Amino acid sequence: MRKRIAILPGDGIGPEVCEAATRVLTEIGRIYHHDFEIKKGLLGGAAIDAIGQPLPEETISLCKQSDAVLLGAVGGPKWDTLPGEQRPEKGLLGLRKALDLFANLRPVTIFDSLAEASPLKDDIIEGVDLLIVRELTGGLYFGEPRERRNEGGQEIAIDTLVYSRAEIERIVRRGFELAEQRRGVLTSVDKANVLESSRLWREVVDEVAKDYPNVEYSHMLVDNAAMQLVRNPKQFDVMVTENMFGDILSDEASMITGSLGMLPSASLSESGPGLFEPIHGSAPDIAGKGIANPLATLSSVAMMLAYTLQMPDEAEALQKAINNVLENGYRTADLTENRESALSTVEMTDKVLEALDKTTTVS
Question: What pTM, to 2 d.p., does this model score?
């Protein structure tokens, strides 16, 4: 069966890690006899440079006609002086909206072979395996009005936080569903002691929870959640929260592992194509040097195979190959202080391909 995959390399190291992903997808297709039709599109700064806007209509059309979308990274100092509506990041926000990607999943798992890279003590991080489920289409990032104006001789800025009951319910249900598939524990994060939107959020969680009697759930204020992620991350299984809180908490949680270069993410809709991307940025300081860590992007490919393409065996094989490479001591520059032994992006991808070939058996 043919599967259409749109790849949006974007900016900075995006093209390099997406090239690694393309090689791995091609090999998985060969091993498992899949027909992956891969097409590239423009997004972010690359699109601005090419046609003057961060999200071309052609890219939206390409993604809507695909089964899944893989993104490299967007943004960089080259475009920092542009007005907010014209910056690369606006292209990503617009794509999420166009595809109705309402659920962002960010797994945080400790690789035993990389535990020494974490800034936290071993007894705190050992066994950490949590999933942050972030709402993507509402909240401060999309609320209107959004403006700056003079009022009584004083310049003010206005952002509006808006959530509907329907938006909250669909992300909360996704959180409960994922908790059912994992360890059956869900933590809902809000700021209900201050925000009306969070009070509505908490009400909806209590209502939806009745449909999932096998899931143990609790509410936690976002400031406490930020503290608990550092104090005792093992207490969490699935965390579900609104857009801005999820943005902040997932970046905090990522540092538990010791490297942003290791963590993938998935953004899912009700039924359309999912968007998969590493959570690291475009890293313009190392772009073009061939030293970027491709593993977060390759783990994002594993999530794509599992969540959207319905290929769990292939996903497991790829993640196992990544784990084997790390267990065998191979590192990119961000994972080791020994620069002489650090592998390039291409070399690390080669190692994953070798491990994939060795550990995969198809009848």
Answer: 0.89
